[in-house]
Design a protein that fits this description.
The complex is a heterotrimer of chains A (375), B (270) and C (313). Chain A has 9 helices and 21 strands. Chain A has 375 residues and is an alpha+beta fold. In chain A, strand 20 and strand 21 form a beta hairpin. The longest helix of chain B has 35 residues. Classes of the chains: A alpha+beta (375), B mainly alpha (270), C mainly alpha (313). Chain A: GO terms for molecular function: ABC-type transporter activity; ATP binding; ATP hydrolysis activity.
Amino acid sequence: MSEVELLSVSKLYGNKQPYIIKNLSVTIESGEFFVIVGPSGCGKSTLLRMIAGLEDISEGVLRIGGEMANHWSPSQRDISMVFQNYALYPHLNVRENIIFGLRVKKISHEEREKRLLEACEMLNLTDYLNRKPRELSGGQRQRVALARAIVSQSPICLMDEPLSNLDAKLRAHMRSEIRKIQRQFGTTMIYVTHDQVEAMTMGDRMMILNQGEIQQIGRPIDIYNHPANTFVASFIGSPQMNMCEAYYDGTSQELRINNDLKLTMALPKLKTSTYIIGLRPEYIHIPQPNNSNQTTVQVVINHVELLGNDTLFSFQVNDQQWTAKWNGQWLFEPGDKISIALDADAICVFDKGTRQLVHSSIKQDHDELQKGVLA
Amino acid sequence: MMAIKRGSLYVVLILIALLLFFPIIYAFLVSFMSTKEVLMGHLIPKSFSLTNYIDAFQALPLLHSLINSMLVSIITTIGQIIVCSLAAYAFVFIEFRGRQFLFFLFVSTMMIPWEASIIPNFVTVQKLGWINHYAALTIPFFATAFGTFLLRQHFKTIPKELHEASRMAGLGHLTFFLKVVMPVSKTSLVTLGIYCFLTTWNSYLWPLLVTTDERSRTAQIGLRQLHAQENVTQWGVVMAGVVIVAIPTLLVLFLGQKHLQKGLMDGAVK
Amino acid sequence: MAMENPTSTGKVPSLNMPYRTFWEKTRPIQVAILFLLPSLILFSVFVFYPLFRTIYLSFFLTNQKGLPTVFVGFDNFIQLFQSADFLQSIEATFLFVLYTVPASVVISLFLALLANEKLKGIHFFRTIFASSLGVSVAAASVTWLFIFNPTMGVLNRMISFFGIPEINWLADPHWALLAVSITTIWLNLGFSFLIILGGLQNIDQSLYESSSIDGAGYFYQLRRITIPMLSPTLFFIMTVSLINAFQTFGQIDLLTGGGPGQTTNLMVYAIYKDAFVNFNFGKASAEVVILFLLILIVTLLQFKFVEKKVHYQ
């Protein structure tokens, strides 16, 4: 089995504060695609390198396949790793680069060639076997690094921002490619990225890390719908979640954002107090005539972005800039005054002090509808 | 495991450091010994008396030769930085016909050893009346292929956009060179400066040829004379001379080692 | 502006145009020449002219002032190759190159590998290892002269401790060249070490990490990553050491004066004596030409045979 377990793992350099990684526990299941995401400097690469054995673990236990692995050398851990800069040997050609690890492990010539051929066909590298890395494009280099991980046939693969040096189009392509390969081999994948799109689209589960501490672990869609705190809420999703302070009055069951904007909603678990609320741009709707159940408000547009299929526009709510996303093409101009409707069911409420989620009622979107389509 | 590995590494490092540094330590120790101690082959002097140093300064105009060396090294360093950076600038920022050829010509001079041109150069310097003058010790070394090459490699890392932007702003080549290229390249100028200072201070054959009177000798030649005069008996005095002559360059090296290592590397291989 | 078309306006004197355009066209090269002028003058006077002058002089007999008197064709060269002294000096030079160059490179590589380990206080060791770069030929030679001193020197005291009889290092024809070589290797180490250490630090760390995940050990990494990646640096340092070895002078002048029995009479020292002690510029120039050709050939051979094994990125 190839699950990876981290138990109260910490990292600090020397004996000095601060912690790079602080008291982190998680179990990554065998065969799972697990994404670690966070802003730069959050410790995600360090964590990956600790799993790889390239950095010492200061405190805590690392288990691989159920066995304590803290003091295993990198090679004993039976992992493969794809580096951000690919770490291709500039003096070796593509073939030698790919089978470098197999040579080290003294794998027979026939087996080597077989794996090489297989991986190269999968990744369209067959024509480049005799080229040096410098003669390859960025995308091809990336695929060589990937092929190197594949031929090792290690049950666990670590990737450190492998797509960050590619252009947007290629990145989208490689996302699905990597996912496909991972499924095909049933590899346990631990994938580090700062790109929340990669995190959302690739992972079975993801872990959001900030300043060395876990913010949330879960399925991407659950995290999107129920962000555990304001950090996760603003980190995941683009354009990011709109947020501002609001006062909840328990007796009138009213959530007051300002004098013009009040939402009537029952939040029985919440006391009367000031909270931070969050609402994703896609839950700000076009007001529907004859619907008394919606909260509409007039806003002044101050910025418009026409994306073709969607239109983003911004307006001021209290001291915050909010963004709304409407389907289709809307030819607004800054200064236009329009009506919008807020979807009260989609509002997330965070505690003002701890910034933790205290209420969210989003059901997985179109849950019922989806069942109908699938049938 | 790790501790054992680390410990043994330290042992090896210390042993090798002692071995490599031994000649310098040895010279230092002998420089304090009396003639009798030297003859008996002691390794550690009984007392650290400065008699040998005083004798060394009295035996020869050693102080004068030290000043000569210092001035010659500083002048050569400044001259080389100016001449080489001008040339390197032309090779990087001015596009002109024949640039490739001229650069090749410059680099090819690296293949010509200085010794190969020493006879005509001696005659030239003689004709110019530079014998026993600083001019003979400095000017021939202002232009070097190595310096030009090193600075060119660094100048090439300056973004072209910087040059284009300054042209849009109406800066001429000379202003761009003085106001942008030189300040931006401070590190590689320092590297070249350190290297040039060391090699000039330590040069031997050329100063031996073009200086004939005591007043214009450099420290290296002073050392040669000290050794010739005191040879058989006064080893302590000679070693004092060695220490005096080696201290300035050792200091420059210790202070500038990081610069030198990085800068020379960039010039050599990139 | 000069851009106006003279045929359409007719106002601009047509004579002026070609002159101005030529001036404009060659503007970059004018500026370039200004920047290059100091170097060009100095190179012409102190590098290119002497090179041709030396070749010219090598075909002449010269008088006491060093001026050519009688054209003798290749006589200077023929005489040199018939002279046992000169052949001995070529042999000594090649032996010296053989003793010093490989040893310097191998030892400095070893030092650099050691000093590239991540340890506390490693900077101190790096400084010590580089220290000989800060010691001049003269200072080093005088120091080693004393170390080699048969009665007072520390070397003989050390070997006598092990029961080996005293060796007259610099006066014994068997040992003199080796003694000079040891001094030279020590002098070379500082520079070679610094350059190779710089080369090591330029190697991307992730290559080692990647291979350690594959399970490559220290020596496997050394053979398959470090040495190939370092090969341009090693090649550079080999070439530089080679050229330097051919040009050795100061050590000989101070340590042995070319003796004993000419065993350490390296070529540059022979040239020095012929030119500036005997004032025979014609003969000395012929020796210089031969030295130059030897350096050229050896360097070219090195480029031809060694450079193939160099991996440039």
